[in-house]
Each structure stands twice: as structure tokens, then as C-alpha cells.
Amino acid sequence: MNAVELVGVSKVFLGKNKREFRAVHQVSLQIPEGEFFSLLGPSGCGKTTILRMIAGFELPTTGEVYIQGEQMRDRPPFHRPVNTVFQNYALFPHLTVAENVAFGLEMENLPRQQIRTRVGDALALVRLNGLEDRRPRQLSGGQQQRVALARAIVKQPQVLLFDEPLGALDLKLRKEMQLELKHMQQQLGITFIYVTHDQEEALTMSDQIAVLQEGKVLQVGTPTEIYEQPNCRFVADFIGESNFLVGRVIEQDSGGVVVLVDETLPISIPCSETFPVGKVVTLVIRPEKATIHPAHYLDQPCLAGIVTEVVYLGTDTRFVIRLTPQSTIVVRRQNIYRSNLDCFAIGESVQIQMASDSIQILGEGQLLPSQTFTASRRENR
Amino acid sequence: MTHPSPSQTLRQKINLSILLFPATFWLILFFLLPLLIVLLYSFLERGTYGGVSWVFTLENYQRLINPIYWGVLTRSLNLAFLTTTICLLVGYPLAFFIATRPPRWQNTLLLLIIIPFWTNFLIRIYAWIIILRNEGVINTLLQSLNLINQPLDLLFNSFAVSIGLVYGYLPFMVLPLYATLEKFDFSLIEASHDLGANDLKTLIRVVLPLTLRGIVAGSLLVFIPAVGEFITPDILGGAKSIMIGNLVQNQFLGARNWPFGSVLSIVMMAIVLVPILIYFRNSENSNQF
Questions:
Q1: Which of A58, A142, B12, B236 has the fewest CB atoms found within 10 Å of its own CB?
Q2: Coiled-coil annotation: which residues (chain B) (predicted)?
């Protein structure tokens, strides 16, 4: 059974001057039990609205939310078997850490002794023993985050909802918490639904990721599927860094296609999908999947260009290579050897080798005379 | 500000006292000094034509034993308490409503709360006579609807005084409540709902405790002046709804017994001091979060 299922859920908000704003549009998702499921997308993509509809803070304009197979339309938040870890933690400032964690159990009218035991267990789980009598204000951001987590976990919900819970933490702490959350999820076996705009976070923790844009689900899949086989340009662009080469199919046979990029550059790619000759397609090439070589290093046909930019990034070096007068491609090379750090200089002619099975073909794209090639970075958006 | 070195502290102290001089001067001249005069007068004998004669006595305080004064005092406290309660019950939902509107609406609604202040208090209280009297708006309306045969006695009793007090002091309740609720983090309500608390439990366990400061501040701002109020009972109340403020006014102006008027003032202040002390203790506690 699915822990949570959304069936054709839409949410329309009325804004100023009664202008309708469509936050979520026709979203259907099945979230299996015990899974770490991430809703990933840029801000304003509707991911938080979806989470709030599962929690019950918003009602879908159309469509239904099911939790454990039960329809949730008439269930207020306090009657749903889910708990939320809020983005700003929303800890009760007038209560101590222990009282905050006990709050949800007191609402269930459990016996005192049981509440005390369970609060102790939850605080031990998030490693906050000894801070029971502090007030939220006396805690660091990371500790507050743990209290919020303990407060939700202590309720032993079927589904735990996270609304960008690590957003306010610094990078190191965030990485620690990511792994800790993942371990906790595996240990407890609770379904986690996790909203984030951080693609790396989603890749690190999730069993499945749903990528959203403008209120719509673009792709649902495992981190590997999402990264290796993005189904559209937005997903390829949002998750990691991608080069996009737009071209026209000029040959098609059972084994694959040949795409003519920029009217001059034929690239042959094996693919199981069929694309009719003449169709405009986009090739997605991850910068780390291309290898850079000195000119005339390879005998086989491959891309050739001139280095225009070299950026040393520590673990790897990022090269921008001009393939044709209008267009460039980004290649990253891991810095394994110190000796060849400076081996490609600006202005040098190079060859680019790509495993043809690591190129993803998208049946979309527009041929623009000036933008046939684009290298775009996620960070630039 | 960083921790000042000792020499800085002295200079800062001097600067501070210069800056605070006008306020200190004002408070000493117009607050502390009159207060001491009132305290002094309460131990003196009354003069023949008003004023005081400089003879020490405790007689004025002994007069308080008379149950008539206790009746007035009790009524004052009751009326003030009732006024505060009604103001709170009406004001809290109102302040909550205003604080949850979009920002552009909040200012307009607050303006509507404050607008009555632009009219003189006396005139506003007199207006209630027109509403409440036998030929007034309410009675005329009820009679024309044939709901009553005889006009209701709405004026010149404690009921009219309560209405006047609630009307007059409601803004003093709403404004501090709004100030507190406006800062209230409404995501805490969602957190409470999320943890299984229904609306009532959320109100009792989360919203009220976190807005207690506003509740206490508003209640004091209503209770304290309401206890000593004399204009509203003077205009809307009859002989039976006299409050301690009327008594003080009467002793100074009518009976020309300044010492006894001073005693009544001091008793009133002592009573009012109790909630103020509670307030300070409360604000010390709430400093913890």
C-alpha cells in the first residue's frame, strides 16, 4: 500500500485583485511505505504547497489526498497520521525542550509515565539528552532543528513531512544532518516526505525524487534515474550541471541515431527510442562524462575545440571549450594527479571524448541560430 | 553596546542623567511631589473652609471603617473587573481578527479603533444618554417593533456605567493585544494542529500563553483607570452606581474635606498597585523566552 497518494491534485490561490494563482497543477504521486521521498524544485514550484496539502494545512482545490489509503479531505491536520518538521522549526518558545516534545503526546492523553519515557527516547534519538529544561531560544540552530525532529518523531507517525528543515543550518552541519536523517529513516522505517530546493540534498538522501516546476511534476525516479536519464531539459538543468547540444536527426537506424549539431557536427548516439529523421532533439551531456585530450590524441571522430576558460575548483577543474564560433561546452576533469594540473591552457586546441551511451537524447529543443550550443550551470539560475 | 570601561561608565552616567533630566524633573514636580502632598494631607485635619489645618491625626483613616465606603469600593472594583473582563472577551477576538488581516487592512482597521479618540470623551459619553434613555434609540426601536410595552430602564444604573466603561476603554485593551498578536508567530498554530491539538487546545496551550503579556498589559490599562473613573459614572450612573472616583471628587470639590479625599485616593492607589505588582512579576517571568 502507498503511504501517501495524490490523485490529480491542484491548488489555486486567490491573489490580489482576485487573480488566480495556480500553485499546484494536476499532481498525481504514489509514495510507497517506508520510502524517503523528496519533492525537489526551485522556489515557487509548489513543493511546499503539496506538503501542506498532505499535512492538511491547505485543502486541494481539486483532486484528493490519500494517506494509508484513506481519503483526507474532511480530516483536519490534528486528525491526520502525519507530523511535520517545519522550515523555521516552529518550536513553542514558552515551553522547554521536554515540554515541546511532550506536547503532541499530551494531546493524545497518554499516561504521564509513558509520555516521560517516550520523550526521553525521542531526545536520545536526536542526541539531545541533558537539554530537557532549556528553552528553544537557548539552543543553537542545529539543536532547535533536533528538537523539531524529536517533537515530530515522538508521535510515531506513519508519515513524517519535512519542509526544507536544513535550510537554516550551515553547510557542514547540513551534511551531517542529511546523513543522520537518512539513517534515522532507515532505522525507524517511517515514510519521509522531504521538500527541498537543494538537488544535492535530494540526491544524497532520497529513495525517490519528484522534480517539480511551476506546480507540475516533471519526473519521478530514483536519484540515479533523475541524474542519468533526465526526461526533459529542465530536470537535466536543475539537477547538476549539463551541456545542451541542440541538433537535427539526420540518420536513424535500429542501433541509434546520428544528430547533426550546429549544421556541421555529426554525433552518433546509440538509443532505443526512435526519433524520425529531421526531428530537432537536444543532447544532454554531463560535464564530468566528457574527457578532455590534447588535439590529435584520438584517431576516432570526436568533438574538437579551443579552451576558452579554465577554472580550478579543488577536486576538479572546469574547462569551457569553444566548439564552433557560437557555442561552447563545459567539461570537468577530476584532479587526480598534481603533475598535469596545468596541462590545458587557454587558447589550446583540444579533443573531447564522450562515451556515447552517457549522452541523453531529449525529443525537445529549438534551433536558434545563435544558441545552438549552450552550456548552462544550475548555479546560474 | 560593548562593555564599557570604568571611566566610560562614569561619563555615560553623566550623559545619561543629562538626557534624563527633563523627564526626571517632570516626574518629581508633577508626580512624586503631589503624591507626597496627598500622603501628607491624609494625616492632617480638615480646614474649616477646605484646605488643611496642620494637626496630625489618624481620624481620616479610622473613617474608612464605615461600610458605606466599602460598598462604594467594592462596586468600583466589581465594575472595573467586569469592564476589564468584557473588554478582554470582546477585544481579544477583535485584535486577533485585525492581526490576521493582510497588512494593508490592518492599518485601516486600527485607524477605525482609534478614530473615536478624535472626539471629546465627554461628548462620546453624553452620546450614550441619547442611545440609552427612555426615548432613546434602543427603547424607541424596541417599542416600534412591539417587543416591549414599557421603555426599559437602561440609563442611570450600573448597567449604563458598565457600557460606558467598556466603550471608553476597549481601545486600551485592543491596542496592546494587537501589538502582541501582531508579533505572534502564526506558524505555531500550525505546529500545534500538526501535533494533534484542536482549535480549543491550541488556544489554551499555545496562543493564550504566548500572548499573556498583551492580555496583562491590556487588562491593566483598562482596570486601573476604570477603578478610578468618575466621569462615566457621573454622567451615566445614578446615585446608586457611584464609584470611588466620584467619592474622591466629591470630597475635594463638594464636601471640601481634602484630608479624607486624600485617604480615599491613597486607598485607591494601594488597590491599583496590586495588579501592577502582578504585572511586573509576570513580565520578569516571561523574560525567559
A1: B12
A2: none
